[in-house]
Amino acid sequence: MSRCRSATLIALVLLVAGCAPSRSGSLGPAPTAAAPVVPAPTSVGPSAPIAPTLPTDAPAPTTPGTRATGVARPETLTLELWYVRDGRLVPTRRTRPATVATSRLALAELAAGPTRREADAGLVTLLPDGAEVSRIVAGVATVRLAVVADPVTARLREAQVVYTLTQFPTVRQVDFGTAAPAGRADHADLLPPIVVTGPVIAGRVTSPVTVTGSADVFEATVNVRVLDAAGRQLATAFTTATCGNGCRGGYRVAVRYRLSAEQSGTIEVYEVSAVDGSRTKVVAVPVTLAATR
User: Fold this and answer.
1) Per the omega criterion (within 30 degrees of 0), is the bond before 41 cis?
2) Helix H or strand E segment including 152
3) Last residue of a domain, one of 147, 171, 190
């Protein structure tokens, strides 16, 4: 009897569960990471490639054949001109408006001759008007000069041209059509024992004044002194050239002086005689001496 009740009770429970409403349901798809947003491409014309993005510090691209240096072309040009004094070459300088025809300008200035103050210091030119460079090929400039009877004058004139033109990096030698092309070494014997390249005649200097040049002097010792308008010695200095005793070397020395008022003066560069201590081989450069504080 108890078995029958148990069976009946189980059957009743199953029947009630089958008739109850279902409590299951869908929770939706499993969550996933958000898909990246891809921007739509911008049209730049048919089949045109999209330029890559440059870093912020990258230089802007330039068109082939152009340069974007940002450097302004200089408005002036300083020329080194070699004149003659006492049968020897002497350098000076000119500042002129810049030009691409530098060799033509240099020869024109050389033929024009020294300034009045340079002439007063003994400088002359032997180059005639109309001398020009016809071409420059492989470092050789071609110049034709009128023939002169005096061989000393002819050689000094050619030396003026050689030393003046070889200041430019495009010229190493000069062809005059009468012999092999010549360079500075071929006319080195026409230099005086002491050459002063700075300061130049009639230049204005301040203290300390820097004196430069080349020299072939005893024990390579180069001496300098500064004189005021009355010829009084204001300061002295000495230095050693890079070569001496039979060879030419460069020198550079700064000389400090004191002066209350601006005035004319002289820079003297010389050798001290090993015999009696006197000044020899003197080169005097007239200048304007600026006052010192």
Assistant:
1) no
2) helix 151-165
3) 190
215 assigned to some structural domain:
yes
Task: Give the whole-number percent of the chain exceeding pLDDT 70.
Answer: 76
Number of structural domains in the chain: 2
Choosing from 139, 165, 190, the residue where a domain stops is 190
Beta strands in 177-278 (DSSP E): 194-198, 204-205, 209-215, 221-227, 233-240, 249-255, 263-272
Residue 22 lies in a domain: no
Is the model's pLDDT at 123 over the cut of 90?
yes
pLDDT tens, 124-152?
Answer: 999 999 899 999 999 999 999 999 999 99
Q: What are the tens digits of pLDDT across the range 84-113? A: 999 999 999 999 999 999 999 999 999 999
Say yes or no: 172 and 136 in one domain: yes
**Dist CA 228 CA 152 (whole Å):** 37
Confirm if 234 and 259 have CB atoms less than 8 A apart. yes
For residue 207, tell me if it sits in a domain.
yes
